Amino acid sequence: MGRTQRKRRHKKARNFHTCNESTEIVLLNSWLKKQGMKCNEKLVLAVFDDTGRGVLTKRKIKAGEELLNLPLNCTINVTSILMDVDFCSIFLVNKAPCVVEYKRKVSFQSLMAMYLVFLKIQGSKTKWSIYLNSLPKEYTVPYFLPNYLKCHIDTDILAVINKQNEIIKTSFHIFEKILENSNSDKDAVIKLKAKFTMSVYEWAYFTVNTRCVYMDLSKLVDLINVENSILNLIHDNTKISLCPYLDMINHSPSARNETKLMVSFNVKNINVNYLNDKLFSDVWFSIYTKSHFDSYTEVYICYGDSHNLKLITEYGFYLPANDLDYVSFNFEDVLIFLKSKLIKLSQDQMAFIHNHGLNKHLYIDLRGLSFNLYGLLMVVKYYYNQSHDVSRMLYSAALCSNDKLLNELITPMVRDKVVSVKESLSKLETYECDYVLSNCIALMSQYVVILEKFIKY
Q1: pLDDT at position 396, please?
Q2: pTM of the predicted model, to two decimals?
């Protein structure tokens, strides 16, 4: 009986099933092995009840152990793009001087997404086909919510979606125009012209968005003198990469890890015109854990300290009890609220606010008012009070958000925000709730908790 009970308890506690035997994963593991990937032998891919697909360790892992070691040419990074002659021909064999005409008009993430579409449309003809087939077919970010739900979600979530939408649409139309003007006769380019759609580009954009990792190749490759390269199109840096298998390890804010770029020969500042696979045959991207993991538990890495607004809009998941969550307030909305209370700021007050940056980063978190919101209210309340030196108070070590008068000044606006969020939640809860919507509801419910705590105290 005792043995049976132990088995039952073990079965009940088991919250995963391994998936290393599935055809898709067998193919991926086999391909990665051929490419030269070295993976910690304790690790297997699994599906977890709470986090979905991730990585399980069969035996205890100690801090300092290497989790994964990938050859650089087994990752999709800036060098992959630059060395793909067919892809570059889209831009360089063109009716228009597009690398000049669209100079610094797109992000590197957008260019990566365009390249991913290019690879995906080639199907089995590209070496990346097995990896591409292992990627999710859809993503759980609020960007993909239908419009009838978007109109009820919080303004902070909607602002991120609108920004993503603007970036995606703008870059899509730029790439669409470049494709139309391309004179490249490569089969892959001709195929891309016929199949380049917004839906596949959105998929590619969020594949990069949710799965890329930080990888700095600036010491290896000269990424500054790129006037005649397609990198002339981008307005930011190139320090992201898609890393097969590594991108299946899920996030935990408590996990600690370190990445290393290991070069076995003396090479640096390679000109972009002289790149080739042989140069990178002995360059490896490695990740080490600084955390301990017990046997038969999920292995995590940290994507960075992030609040849930970023986690749900950028990665598509929500972390309960996230102390980094906050509720933001727009400066213009604060001014409208003050005006409704017959409080009008003078030109001197407005100048002081802008000069000290107190019109930005206005929010309330579980600890109370942000430094800037507290400082803004201080200017509103005490700027003309001769017994208070606002400049000195603002940067005093004694500054804290426990001034009852300042809290009471903003409390009516906070109450209005609580009412507004609760009304939106009531409407959202009338719809069938999927994973994406439940994340939005969870975050908005957390907003209510934060705001009601502020009002209470």
Answers
A1: 67
A2: 0.90
